[in-house]
TrEMBL record:
Family assignment from sequence similarity: Belongs to the NDUFAF4 family.
Region named Disordered: 16-46
Basic and acidic residues biased stretches: 16-27, 36-46
Record's protein name: NADH dehydrogenase [ubiquinone] 1 alpha subcomplex assembly factor 4
A GO cellular-component term linked to this record: mitochondrion
Quaternary context: Binds calmodulin. Interacts with NDUFAF3.
Gene Ontology BP term (one): mitochondrial respiratory chain complex I assembly
InterPro entries associated with the record: NDUFAF4
C-alpha cells in the first residue's frame, strides 16, 4: 500500500516539472582565481629567466653523484625446454570421492579436503576410541596439534527428527 502512495506522489505533475528543469539556464562555472600560473609567467619575464638559468653550484653537486648499477648474473639456459620446479609439494591421493570428475584427486600433505574433514569428524564423533587424534594424524598425513585443534573446535551437526504430532509442536 505504501508503494502505491509514494508512486502517486513521485509521478504527480512529472511532465511540467521536467519541462521546468529543462528550461532553466545552465549554471555558470565558478570564476578562475586571478593569479593562475600562466598569467604570472607572462607578466613577469624575470621569473622566466630564473626558471631557465643554470645554477652552477647545483650542477657541480650533481656531477659528484655517482651511481653504480650491476645487472644480476645471466642464467644459462640449458637442457632444452626442461624447467626444474623451485619447490615441489608432496601430494597424496584423497580417501573419498563420490562426485567423480568434480572431486579433488590430490591434496598436499598436511592438508585435507572438505569431504575428508567431515568424514574424520563424523568418525571421531561416532567411534572416539577407534578414531583417536593420533590415528587421524597418521591416516591423513596431518600434524597432531592441528588434528587436536580440529577435533576440539569443529563439531559436526547431529540431525534429529521429531515426530509430527501436535504434542511435539
Amino acid at each position: 500500500m505504501g508503494g502505491r502512495l509514494t508512486r502517486v506522489f513521485r509521478t504527480f505533475n512529472v511532465e511540467s516539472r521536467a519541462r521546468r528543469e529543462i528550461s532553466k539556464e545552465k549554471p555558470t562555472p565558478a570564476p578562475r582565481h586571478p593569479t593562475s600560473r600562466l598569467d604570472k609567467l607572462a607578466d613577469h619575464p624575470e621569473v622566466q629567466e630564473e626558471i631557465y638559468r643554470k645554477d652552477d653550484r647545483l650542477l657541480t653537486l650533481l656531477k659528484d653523484v655517482y651511481v653504480e648499477s650491476r645487472d644480476p648474473p645471466a642464467q644459462v639456459k640449458g637442457g632444452g625446454g626442461e624447467h626444474l620446479p623451485c619447490k615441489q609439494e608432496e601430494k597424496r591421493l584423497t580417501k573419498l570421492g563420490h562426485l567423480g570428475d568434480l572431486d579433488v584427486k590430490k591434496v598436499p600433505k598436511g592438508k585435507i579436503s572438505i569431504v575428508e574433514a567431515l568424514t574424520l569428524l563424523n568418525n571421531h564423533k561416532l567411534h572416539p576410541q577407534i578414531w583417536t587424534a593420533e590415528k587421524i594424524a597418521v591416516e591423513y598425513s596431518l600434524e597432531l596439534k592441528d588434528v587436536n585443534s580440529l577435533l576440539e573446535f569443529f563439531i559436526p551437526f547431529a540431525v534429529q527428527e521429531f515426530p509430527k504430532t501436535k504434542k511435539a509442536i
